[in-house]
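Expect chain and fold; see below:
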Amino acid sequence: MKTLTLIVLTLVMLTPFQKSMAQAEKKQQGAVLNHIAVYVTDLAKSTAFYKDVFDLEIIPEPFKDGKHTWFSIGPAGHLHLIQGAKAGVEHDKNEHLCFSVPSVDKFITLLNVKKIEFEDWAGTRKAVTLRVDGIKQVYFKDPDGHWLEVNDDHK
C-alpha cells in the first residue's frame, strides 16, 4: 500500500511539470532579424562610409553583380547596401538605423576627424541627446541622407 501511495503522489506532483513542459514545447521561436537593406546611389561611396565609420566587416554576397555590399552587424544579422537609389530623396529622422558603441564621446571624436556633421534629436549641431535612462545619442546622415543614430547602450 505504501508503494502505491508513493507512486500516486509522485504522479500527482509531476503533472504540473509535464503540462509546463508541453506548453514550452508548443511555443515557437519568434522571428529574428536577418538583414537590413539600404538603397544607395553610389555603392562604392556608401560602402566606404559604412566600413570606415562603423568598422563593419564586409562579408561575401551571393549576387556578385557589383550592385550589392553585405556587412556583418553581429548577432543582429547583416546590413545590405544596394546600388540604384535615386539621388535627392529626403529621409525623416524618425526612420533611422542605430548602432551602439562603448563610448559616444570617442565616436564623436571619429566623426569630427572625418568631418561628419552630427546633432542631437532636436537638431542642435554638435550636441548630444541624453535620454531619460542616461543613454547618450547622436544623429547624422550617410552619403544618401539616411539618418543614423549612435548611442552608448552597448551591452
